Amino acid sequence: MARKILVAGLALGPFAAILRWVVEAGDVPVFCVSALALIPLAWLIGEATEQAAEHTGATVGGLLNASFGNAPELIIALFAIADGLPDVVRGSITGSIVSNLLLVLGLSLLATTEEDIDKRSLASSLGLVVWATLLFLVPSVPGWNGDPDRHSLAVATIPVAAILLVFYAGQTWFNLRGRRAAHRGPAPDSWSLRDALITLGIATAATAVVSEILVHTLEGFADAAGLSQFFVSTVIVAIVGNAAEHGGAIVVARRGKIRLASEIAVSSAAQVALLVAPLAALLSFAFDKPLPLSFRPVELATMAAAAMLVGAVVWDRRGTRREGVILVAAYAACVAAYWVSGNR
To answer: 259 Cβ partners below 8 Å, 6+ apart?
Structure first.
């Protein structure tokens, strides 16, 4: 049933384009439709990546997943940079990390009766999130006084981004090396490699178009809804950009596979911190005003607190429903903090 809804939801992409460029509807309906349209597109990218991996094996499949799994978040970030919305980019990065750690893992724990989780694997990813948060302090602290988007902070971001990408490459290589196995070939009902790659390309291109629509209507939506751009980016845009992974983790948890669900949630947060954030910062130098990774105190505090809280949950190698409630409540507290903080 869920799959049929997602397939039907692919029609929202063209509908958003029609609303934006043909009907010329207001920012609020266009933003809402484009936000919803990103959900099935993110799912389709993930589906096409998995199907391609059936033919390429774990190594290339893992690289495809790393390259395209976070495509919606990165594309949204690049359009926001082009539109001169650096706070939206940083907010969506913050929201993606925090929502994966607290909301997704919390709901996954609530959705399952299985309690055993893989402490070693999760601790490694959580350590990377903490390490990334500490590195973010380099361009962030100077940004608390004066212009947080000044060029000197963008320059200071370059070595931080490079270090994060090196760590991400090292982790990816280690993980792929650890799960190297004989490739048994595609399943009988899998797509052809050609179909998977064509679908992946079309879905990524469609995501770029819808993301452009979303970013261009974000300011108007925020003003009309009485919300700060910071709140919209940290909560709404972040959840939409990660919707496919969020839903996938919870569905997996309902099937009793809490180890896999927790791995999806925590590794997704690490990917955003070590791949999406530094890539967005480095690619921003192709635009008029490059992006410094100069986060606000509330952003760094919630990222660090989320990682440490999840670390406390996984410490005993078990995850209970009570702890799921705690994680969801902690996410609600973060949302309240983003609401109160307003724009920079």
So the answer is: 114, 116, 117, 118
List phi, psi (to 5°) of 318. -135, 150
Q: Tokens 């099937």 correspond to what residue?
A: 255
> CA 265 to CA 242: how far, in whole Å?
10
Mean pLDDT in runs of 10 for the chain (344 residues)? 85 95 94 93 82 70 64 90 94 95 93 79 89 97 94 97 93 68 62 89 90 93 94 93 76 82 87 95 95 97 96 86 94 97 90
Torsion sign (Cα): 172, 173, 176, 179 = negative
> DSSP string of 31-65?
HHHHHHHHHHHHHHHHHHHHHHHHHH-HHHHHHHH
CA nearest to 334, candidates 303, 307, 309: 303
Q: Is-contact 100 241, C-beta < 8 A?
A: no
CA atoms in the 13 A half-sphere facing the CB of 295: 26
Closest CA to 296 of 146, 156, 143: 143
- Structural domains of the chain sorted by starting position, each given as residue range(s) with its CATH number in brackets: 2-341 (1.20.1420.30)
Joined together, the tokens standing for residue 81 give: 């940079």
Cα gap 153→226, rounded to integer Å: 31
What SS3 class is residue 291?
A: coil
Rounded Cα distance between 190 and 52, Å, is 9
65: alpha, beta or left? (left if phi > 0; alpha if psi -120 to 50): alpha
**d(Cα 288, Cα 312) in Å, to the nearest integer?**
43
